[in-house]
Amino acid sequence: MLLSDFLVQGARRYGDKTAMVCGAKRMTYQEVDRSSNRVAHALLDLGVRRGDRVAIFLDNSAETVITAFAILKIGCVFTIINASMKSAKLHYILDNSEASALITDLRRWRVAEEATDGLTSLKASICVDGGVGGALAMEDILSGEGDSLPDNPCIDVDLAALIYTSGTTGVPKGVMLTHLNMVSAATSITQYLENNSSDVIINFLPLSFDYGLYQVLMAFKMGATIVLEKSFTYPYTIISKMQSERVTGFPGVPTVFAILLQLKDLEKYDLRSLRYMTNTGAALPVSHIERLRKSFPHVRVYSMYGLTECKRVSYLSPEELDRIPQSVGKAMPNTEVYLVNEKGERLSPGETGELVVRGANVMRGYWKMAEETAAVLRPGPYPGESVLYTGDLFKMDERGFLYFVARKDDIIKSRGERVSPKEIENVLYSLPQVREAAVIGVPDEILGQAIKAIVVADDGSRLTQKEVIAHCAQNLEDFMVPRLVEFRASLPKTPTGKIKKHELS
């Protein structure tokens, strides 16, 4: 099965059903299918061919979805680029991927023009809201002809997407994902979430972020409806949309849930249709899970763990939340995980080690980065296979439930002890006044590294450094208690909501 089949088969089965809601625009499965066919034929006319990479530099929009499916339908590879990216980084990605075409809009045209200067691979550009600078106008494409489904020579081991990592350190890496990778991941996730054609999933996460992208893919796979919003900047607007569209699925990240839990008068909104909430990107603090359960008692909350290189690894069933809320669950369907020490030896339950992932969802590798690929894709337990070494430290209990410890690079070495920032952050989040928290190590002549906590307190809070340290001292061993506490109005984050700890050092 190919990723584009999600739309093609959906159009045949669901036809006039609403597939996508983007602001005031509503599109049926047939309309999305027909529009993507027209864009696909336009790309072929522009000289784009099987295996070419096509970049999409747009906000969350109907055009982003339409063009992604169009690219897939002609056997090409899409890469969706964060809409706020600046020209230098955009140039790097377009050059690195050797993009044959770029799809953007007038708002980003100047940035795109700067970024494409000197590129030799680029054959054509399409502008969503009007022709400019030699670009083909999307309006002309969609009002033209070419409704037939193009011939697609692909097989499922061909590349479907390049997803560039956020690049918090070094240059961005292009994660190579095949149709098989992405279909497998979507199938496993929809299985444990129990998605079906009656679902209405809201998505305000950027489609350049695999978590946001998969909301669209899963909706089309199941014949559900996706409600696309550009961000969570105006949360009450999102809540109102959830009420009017009778949303059943709400994917979020910790920063979104922190905002959600601060909102007033949520009881005024009718959210009885909401069936589930999911979290990934970073672990959801236990205190937030407890508050979500109280605020939305009828909603199933899924705590999950994943990374772009394999999309999703594990999920915690809502039935286990009360018993082990600090866990990110077991391996998802059709995925196997285990822990190893630095010698690559498998570990027993209760020991801390690096998480290794086996499955059809594991990436092909990093685009044009053989050395970096070899560092994370290593020989597996069976001849001829590769498995993913995640770089994340976990513990696993006797039942196979996973507990995140830290990124290998984040471990703090203080007073001769190895300290997990996550353990301290969990204690900080148990303070009711703490909205966000991050723990880092800072150089110290005596300790090696001193532990520093950076805290964002609730508006109007009078929380003090002394109270934070006292709370930690009551709940942690002496060597884990922060020596330094800094209060900030906000924490720097990636577009996907992860805290940029390297900017806090």
UniProtKB/TrEMBL annotation:
<feature type="domain" description="AMP-dependent synthetase/ligase">
    <location>
        <begin position="10"/>
        <end position="367"/>
    </location>
</feature>
<dbReference type="InterPro" id="IPR050237">
    <property type="entry name" value="ATP-dep_AMP-bd_enzyme"/>
</dbReference>
<dbReference type="InterPro" id="IPR000873">
    <property type="entry name" value="AMP-dep_synth/lig_dom"/>
</dbReference>
<comment type="similarity">
    <text>Belongs to the ATP-dependent AMP-binding enzyme family.</text>
</comment>
<keyword id="KW-0436">Ligase</keyword>
<dbReference type="GO" id="GO:0016878">
    <property type="term" value="F:acid-thiol ligase activity"/>
</dbReference>
<dbReference type="InterPro" id="IPR025110">
    <property type="entry name" value="AMP-bd_C"/>
</dbReference>
<dbReference type="InterPro" id="IPR045851">
    <property type="entry name" value="AMP-bd_C_sf"/>
</dbReference>
<feature type="domain" description="AMP-binding enzyme C-terminal">
    <location>
        <begin position="423"/>
        <end position="498"/>
    </location>
</feature>
<dbReference type="Pfam" id="PF00501">
    <property type="entry name" value="AMP-binding"/>
</dbReference>
<dbReference type="Pfam" id="PF13193">
    <property type="entry name" value="AMP-binding_C"/>
</dbReference>
<dbReference type="InterPro" id="IPR042099">
    <property type="entry name" value="ANL_N_sf"/>
</dbReference>
<dbReference type="InterPro" id="IPR020845">
    <property type="entry name" value="AMP-binding_CS"/>
</dbReference>
<protein>
    <submittedName>
        <fullName>AMP-dependent synthetase</fullName>
    </submittedName>
</protein>
